[in-house]
Design a protein that fits this description.
binds adenosine-5'-diphosphate; 10 strands; binds magnesium ion; Rossmann fold; AAA+_ATPase; alpha/beta; six-stranded mixed sheet
Length: 252
């Protein structure tokens, strides 16, 4: 279980980016964080994998406070937290299979990683995961040859081969068309359920959040103004979150 208690962060004095954020997520759940641009969504994800130092609060992953981890503990913790990026962060000139295997780098010495030394088991698992995301026949193609939706599915496989407890996605579908977005969201939801992983995705597409997420967290001006099952996000809640009519929400 992931539990966030009283999380707070200011980048600049007297300008809080996050104030008193509290939520709990059980394994297997897909949570969408929504809210206007600048609300603090990315800051939450960066705090969860400790890319930034938050100011106060607790972040408990299976009871262990990741905020108090030292350097070597942090390396271990980061293996448990997979990342999926808006712009995929793939090495375009390498093959799909090699990119998936990069998800194992957190488990290897720098040298073994640089030399591209992967075990037969790792390679077999990478191929199995590519099968799960429907990309088996692309394993030996360069990533540069793939569409955006396919690249993001490689990103999903790369995150999963890490055997994470949590996957964090910052705007995972913001660069995709609607059809590819639907495929990626459904795939993520099904896989995290099957593998009993927590997934947190920052999204600006409210409809897709409502359709696919189990739980929705709404952030406005660094404060949590909504935290409930997706069905409960009605028009009134959306208006409260975005401050005005939903048509005026952040553009895609
Ligand atoms: N590195 C930074 N330095 C200073 N201010 C920042 C930095 N990153 C984000 N902010 C500010 O923190 C607030 C929240 O930003 P962010 O978490 O990126 O919002 P969102 O992802 O919801 O668009 C914004 O006011 C933003 O300008
Ligand atoms: Mg952001």
């Amino acid at each position: 279980m992931l539990e966030v208690k009283h999380l707070a962060k200011s980048y600049q004095k007297d300008k809080p980016a996050l104030t008193d954020i509290n939520f709990k997520i059980d394994p297997g759940n897909f949570v969408a964080i929504i809210g206007p641009s600048g609300a603090g969504k990315t800051t939450i994800l960066r705090s969860l994998n400790q890319l930034i130092k938050d100011d106060a609060g607790e972040i408990l992953l299976d009871g262990e406070d990741i905020r108090s981890a030292n350097k070597s503990e942090l390396r271990k913790l980061r293996r448990q937290i997979g990342m999926i990026f808006q712009n995929y962060n793939l090495v375009e000139r390498l093959t799909v299979l090699e990119n998936v295997l990069h998800g194992r780098l957190g488990y290897k010495s720098t040298l073994a990683g640089v030399m591209g030394r992967y075990t037969e088991d790792e390679k077999r698992e990478a191929l199995d995961l590519l099968d799960k995301v429907g990309l088996s026949e692309f394993a030996l193609q360069r990533c540069s040859e793939l569409s955006g939706g396919q690249k993001q599915r490689v990103g999903i496989a790369r995150a999963l081969i890490q055997h994470p407890k949590v996957i964090l996605c910052d705007e995972p579908i913001a660069s995709l068309d609607l059809a590819s977005s639907q495929v990626v969201m459904k795939m993520l939801k099904d896989l995290i359920q099957e593998l009993n992983i927590i997934c947190i995705a920052n999204l600006h597409q409210i409809d897709l959040a409502k359709e696919h997420a189990d739980q929705i967290i709404g952030i406005r001006h660094g404060k949590m103004v909504f935290n409930d099952v997706a069905d409960k996000l009605d028009q009134a809640a959306i208006t409260e979150l975005y401050g005005t009519a939903v048509e005026e929400k952040e553009p895609a």
